[in-house]
Design a protein that fits this description.
The chain is α+β, with helices and mostly antiparallel strands. It folds into three domains: about 100 residues, no CATH class; about 90 residues, PapC, C-terminal domain (Immunoglobulin-like, Sandwich); about 80 residues, Carboxypeptidase-like, regulatory domain (Immunoglobulin-like), CATH 2.60.40.1120. About 30% of the residues lie in helices and about 35% in strands. The chain is built from five helices and 17 strands. A four-stranded mixed sheet has the order 6-3-10-8, with no helix packed on it. A hairpin with a 2-residue loop joins strand 4 and strand 5.
Length: about 290
Amino acid sequence: MSKRKTKSKSKENKPIKQPLSPLTYALISLIALFIGIGILLLFIFKAEDLVALGIDEKVFYILLFPMGFSAAAFLFGAMRSYARYKGKNFGGLLELGGPVVLFLLVIVLGFYLVPDTKPFDFTIFLRDADGKTVLKNQGILKIQLDNVIKKGNIDEDGIVDFKGIPAKFRNAQVPVELEIDYDWQFTNKKTVTDCILKGNNTTLIIEQNYGVITISGSVIDEDGNLLSGVKVMVKNLIEYTDENGLFTIKIPLERQSRKQFLIVKKKGYESWRSSVYPEIKKGIVIKLNKE
């Protein structure tokens, strides 16, 4: 009984005789390898044309076939290796042997492991703790991608879309900065936080910063023209209007009061002095008269 089992076992492990000589298989492997190298060179030197046509990834898949065939021919033909896969398929037994196993393995793994080299789009939703939209057409959101900063305007739904992010940043953690005239911040009490670019969107929670109040507005002349370079002062805090005649002064907690005394000055114009109530949602308009 044991002799029969031994004979059966040795017969099962006996390698299958290859129909061609090892030298022939080595030659086949070499030819397939040269074909693969040719496709690889095409991919390298014609990369821009292939990307423009949208077939760059398809060329990579084609490259897998000669490479897989070369590996199979060399290992199983020249090196006399052997492999067998057994599995149930549609209720029966499927058995694969010889070069086809490694060939299919290379192809299948190549399809699963192929890197995604195409840029992707990413959407960030800005919401408060209750999930409500609080910023509408207000401010800018910036993400930092190495030394490159991408900016996006916050739309009426509190959404920012970033287009064409390089593929290497997929699933990466990047800094995100909130740039807005009004006093909003992330839940870490800062205007900068980290964001993981996973999938195609994420939601960032923001809250109002009650530790700082803001006085913002614009300065115009008698004809309604916006004035730049105007000096705006509140409790020794000084700001100047920008090229669009706009200003923003942030007043820290220790200098806050129910109303603030505002002084506005510009050479050639009469000074403007008045008490104002800090507004968060709406800026004030100050008119300067010429001297």
